[in-house]
Amino acid sequence: MQIDDIDRRILRYLQAEPSLSTAELAEKARIPAATCWRRLEKLNQIGAYKGQEAVIDWAALGYSVEVSLRVTLDKTEPRAFDDFIEAAREVPEVLEIQTFLGRVDVRLNILARDMAHYQHVYRSQILTLPHIADIEALMQIATIKTAKGLPL
Amino acid sequence: MIELDDIDHALLRALSRDATQSAGALGKLHGLSQPATWRRIRRLQDAGILKGRRAILDAEKLGFGVTVFLGIKLATKGRVSLEDFERAISAIPEVQTVEHVLGLYDYRVRVVARDLADFERVLRRRIMTMPGIGDVEANVLLSEERRPGPLRGVAS
């Protein structure tokens, strides 16, 4: 199914203000509410619009340290990716798991309450993950842009 | 910081999966009345823990087939050049996130593009031409999964 300009317009407004009701969204996109509702339904069905998630401020919850761990895996081990990702899912402090084509194989986003807690998580739960060849850490100092919006 | 109990954690976990659920439906799952659930959500919002919601869009289905993470090192540093750089890179529509980091690189940047040719255009015309840019490393995203994070409560 094709995505057209009206779909893109709806998603653009929705992305900017996710809490808009269908009626408000329709008004902004200058289309009838019924059309807007049908379009959203269609976008949902084809999996382009998958709903909404709450944004949690981890720092307000007491997790002030965020570290991006770039992991290189031992690729001589055929199950390296599967084993590593499966084990990483069990670590509650892991917020994101991404796999890459490039110099980095997997990246984990780790949350910790402070540096001491990070040290503890790193030693007892990260370094024990299977098939790690190398780890590099990038510590987040500030997020400058977080919108994660698509240029629709 | 406010004290959170297991129910608060469960609510956060449920809302981070689906933020459109009504307080009534959410409360029923956790044995709370609708007003009690609403009060808890309000409290989480007031404490700044619940910061609103985000529409979950599938980049690939909307024609953005390529996501690349760039590690960028600046060639020249100094307070002014950092701010100029941040402003300039944030203004590029294809740039989704910009993080200032400590380590091998100065910035971590997420870029979305229609395909590799489109990515090359953004990289060459918009990013490599920025003043003060040094080393750039690119890694193409293959898969991505978000975890609930350190929240207590029933497993997802």
Short description:
The complex is a heterodimer of chains A (152) and B (156). Chain A contains five helices and five strands, in the order αααββαββαβ.
Describe the 3D structure.
Chain A has 152 residues and is an alpha+beta fold. Chain A folds into 2 domains: 5-45, Orthogonal Bundle (Arc Repressor Mutant, subunit A), CATH 1.10.10.10; 65-139, Lrp/AsnC effector binding domain/regulation of amino acid metabolism (RAM) domain (Alpha-Beta Plaits), CATH 3.30.70.920. Chain A is built from 5 helices and 5 strands, in the order H-H-H-E-E-H-E-E-H-E. Chain A has a 4-stranded antiparallel sheet with strand order 3-4-2-5. In chain A, helix 2 crosses helix 3. The longest helix of chain A is centred in the N-terminal third of the chain and has 13 residues, at 33-45. The radius of gyration of chain A is 20 Å and the shape is elongated. The model of chain A has no long low-confidence stretch (mean pLDDT 94). With 156 residues, chain B is α+β, with helices and mostly antiparallel strands. Chain B folds into 2 domains: 6-46, Arc Repressor Mutant, subunit A (Orthogonal Bundle); 60-140, 2-Layer Sandwich (Alpha-Beta Plaits), CATH 3.30.70.920. In chain B, 36% of the residues lie in helices and 29% in strands. Chain B has 5 helices and 5 strands, in the order H-H-H-E-E-H-E-E-H-E. Chain B has helices at 6-17, 23-29, 34-46, 79-90, 116-127; strands at residues 50-57, 66-74, 95-102, 107-113, 133-146. A 4-stranded antiparallel sheet of chain B has the order 3-4-2-5. In chain B, strand 3 (95-102) and strand 4 form a beta hairpin. The radius of gyration of chain B is 20 Å and the shape is elongated. At the A-B interface, helix 1, strand 1, strand 3 and strand 5 of A face helix 1, strand 1, helix 4, strand 3 and strand 4 of B.
